[in-house]
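Suppose you are handed a protein chain with no further information: no name, no annotation, nothing but its sequence. What can you learn? This example shows the usual starting point.
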Amino acid sequence: MKVVAFNGSPKKEGNTYHAIKLVVDELEKDGIETEIIHVGNKKIRGCIACSQCFKNRDERCGGITDDEVNDWIQKMKEADGVILGSPVHFAAIAGTMKSFLDRAFYVASANNNIFRHKVGAAVVAVRRSGGIPTFDQLNKYINYSEMLVPSTNYWNVIHGARPGEALQDEEGVQIMRLLGKNMAWQLKLVENGKDTVAEPDRENKIYTNFIR
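A reasonable first move is to predict its three-dimensional structure. Written in structure tokens, the prediction is:
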């Protein structure tokens, strides 16, 4: 089994990285392979609403092809679990990370929901405030894609300003450790249940609006 984690911070080893690392350390103790991908320092443009992913249905963002987003989409497809990590910028997901997520999850939706039933977790690093809104925003992607969400003993937010300070947040460290343990357990439940418990049938997405 493998989990791929995305670090949405501009800092390669800032507090978002440390939050992710606390989780993946527990996964690796359980024999689960992990990979951390640094997104936050890349030049990632947001979705341009070209709908090429819906037209082509080739699991790729067809409107923008000169960055690593399509490679990352395939890594997510091939993984058993996904971790989305972001710092807090104005009580929200960091801009580069959001650009990546908008495109990746739209492509997934356009291609028969390719992240469906993967185990997905969100983690947030914050100096002071805005952690919960950012956590909620990350979870919107996970929930929309019918992913399975492991829990911990509080919301998945850790506090610190300078890189590494988050490791002094004892409660935050415990939150991330327990998240890793519970995620490993859930991954094993899914893996061991594949041959004995049938998945629910897929349903085509129903789209409505409020214009009559």
